[in-house]
Fold these 2 entries.
Entry 1:
Amino acid sequence: MINKYLTIFKISWQEGLVYRLNFILWRVRTILQLLLVYFIWWTVFQSQTQIFGYTQSSILTYILVSAIIRAVVLSSRATDVSNQINDGSVVNFLIKPLGFISYYFSRDLADKLLNILFVILEVSLIIVLLKPPIFLQTNPNTLILFTLAAILGILTYFCIGFVISLTAFWVENSWGPLFLMFIFLEGFGGGLFPIDILPRGVFNFLMLTPFPYLIYFPAKIYLGHFSANEIFLYFSILIFWVITLWFLMRWMVNMGLRHYTAVGH
Amino acid sequence: MVNPVISVKNLKKYYSVHQKEPGLLGSIKSLFKRKYIVVKAVDGVSFKIDEGELVGFIGPNGAGKTTTLKVLSGLLYPTSGEARVLGFEPFKRQPDFQKKISLVMGQKNQLWWDLPAWETFILNKEIYEILQKRFEETVKQLARMLDVEDILKVQVRKLSLGQRMKCELIAALLHQPQVLFLDEPTIGLDVVAQKTMRDFIKEYNERFNATIVLTSHYMGDVKELCKRVIIINEGKILYDGLLTEIVEKFAPYKIIKADFEKMVDKDKLIGFGEIKNYDGLYVEIQLSKEEVAKKAAKLLSSFAVADLTIEDPAIEDIIRQVFKKGTV
């Protein structure tokens, strides 16, 4: 049983590594994206020592940690799902003894593992070359919470991506909603800036949505910026979202397949 | 009595499709108000297929062939009626059922485009939980039968259409399904590849006693492979029976084809039969079976004939007649 998904894992890696140039360019893009954000913040701190309550060290650490989180959390095959539904190759799942969700989750995990290997390498390289004053978290409890938050973030993102892609069962093109999702992710996920620099009201509202939990939340845990109360509150909200989105996804898969088999293509 | 492998009773599958009026205005209109029409893809079809049979589904595009196959393989939920395959209700998609069937569609693929076919085979091995030893034997055997042993490790996108279809077929047969649905398996293939595919399908059917249902546009496929055919049009079955019987029933005539050494006047050929084709040096005459020997002899004695053959009418023509008439 587990072999099934291990093989999906392996075949995904192989597929990812077929085109060397493509692979290298993709890594170059990730590094450039990271350096861009890094240098913007680095420049800002040339004239000041503290902005929005962040020191240069904490913001640069935030940027580097969020790069790692991004690689793990924000990598998904969600768009493949809608493509396969639209072009009908979803039939390949319906005809085989194979779980639809588990298949994609295995593929995602494969991507994530590949990503994390490379991003750790890249971030280490930046640290060695640029010698930023980074903050090393050593508290084991904090690190456990950080890992837990990242895992829940992975689940959250997987479910969001899947739920949106599954709309392809009913509409012919789910690019609109997917595009909207990417914008929300970039703006409110915390990949470009920590969202607590926004006005308090906006920040509090955003913390009720699932988006900040993808990057911002784990990164801030790593920095040790949350009080015990905040940790408890935010974890509760996050767990609520994971459960809700999980059931929503399951429900949509069932409904979608039923609709698909009823309507046909 | 043995239960049939496939039994279908009064199966119906209706779709509702929305219709757009032509032009931009029509597109805008359809944003607000959609007109739906019901398409009766399969409309009350019944048949039974026994173990080891190789049955051909014939019909024009949109006749309901593919829809029927999809219902039988569990991809579509029937609107009404009953469909049973190996005792299972296909649409429930139970793993035990899925491990016993396979569907190959000439226009869809399951092979991973960027990797060699071999990798897809390995994935399928795990999905269907095939034992290593049996997997190796099956791949070897199928690859030899299809003559693709040397391309299994080549990236799929670099293969020709024919090679790819053969690999598709292997991927679909690794778990040795008892029931195989083939939807246009030879579409787009050249004559040689078509022949290999046909030979393979026949051999597979005989060697494994697999039940095969095949749809095809090419009468050649059906003629060579299937004893029994089901002719379907507009969702209804027009004929279900032996292919040879349909020829008997529909074409109680033969065709004489003759090449002359010298030009022959068309008038002189009147009385031999119905002239289907004539250009002075060549003629095709359709006539009843009883007359054919006598008339052929007369033709040979009356004119300088260079070559003469007597043939059955083309199966395509017969099928066309069935569709025209609407019933058998």
Note: The interface with chain A takes residues 13, 15, 41, 67, 70, 73-77, 91, 93, 95, 98-99, 101-103, 105, 108-110, 112, 114-115, 119-120, 122-129, 155 of chain B (CB under 8 Å).
Entry 2:
Amino acid sequence: MAATSYHREVRVPVRSDLDVLKARQDGREMARELAFISADSTLVATAISELARNIIQYAGQGEIIITAAEEGARRGIIIVAHDDGPGIPNISEAMQDGYSTSGGLGLGLPGVRRLMDEFEIFSEVNAGTTVRVKKWLR
Amino acid sequence: MIRICHLAMYLIVTILSPLSDGEFLDLQNNLNKQIQASRSQAVVMDVSGLDVMDSFTCRTLSDLSCRMKAQGKETAIIGIHPEIEESMKRFGLRLEHAAIATNLEEGLAVLGRRIATKRHGSN
């Protein structure tokens, strides 16, 4: 498949901790290609690492999809973290700060939201979870 | 990749490249064993090779520092890139039970003072 500069998509199956590492490295690479400044590429890589690890921990396996985003004049990057795992029974609770932000046992989702510009989550118990985040070039 | 160096009363651990979670946990366990077997009074963790500091990384480093403290050993973490420091701030992550220093010289100085204070305090 020929790689074009835009509308490029990278899909990383996430099944192990090595895939978590690969997903965030691929994300950083893509952010760099899209001309993100280095500091923002680090934010993107950190968000991917967090989302990919959630997949391993809570669903066992899933996928990270990294795509270039274009909305009018804005360019950026979209990260989708998807799994068919147990789902999150109480999303608003999972989105609250607390024990999760001090590096405790939480999902780290509030932190991911603060790293990125846009954040959406869809989850259904016994069906799975999809988190979709965006970062725009500045 | 990790380099471990014994220098006087210090154990200097340099993380040279990004680690998977499993590698990080292995490192934590190995250091725990090494420090027990050694006469090192303190650990310097140079994290300049890491690509990110996410919640797992911060938790693992904080846990490690906490275990060191439980054995009466101090920990300093050095080499956090400004960009990574910024990402930690935005995320809301903190490193606990460790001194944070910008470079090796400063890290050794902080640890040296802490060890001296402890000795003075116990006499």
Note: The interface with chain B takes residues 17-18, 20-21, 24-25, 28, 38-39, 42-43, 45-46, 49-50, 53, 97, 100-104, 106, 108, 110-112, 114-115 of chain A (CB under 8 Å).
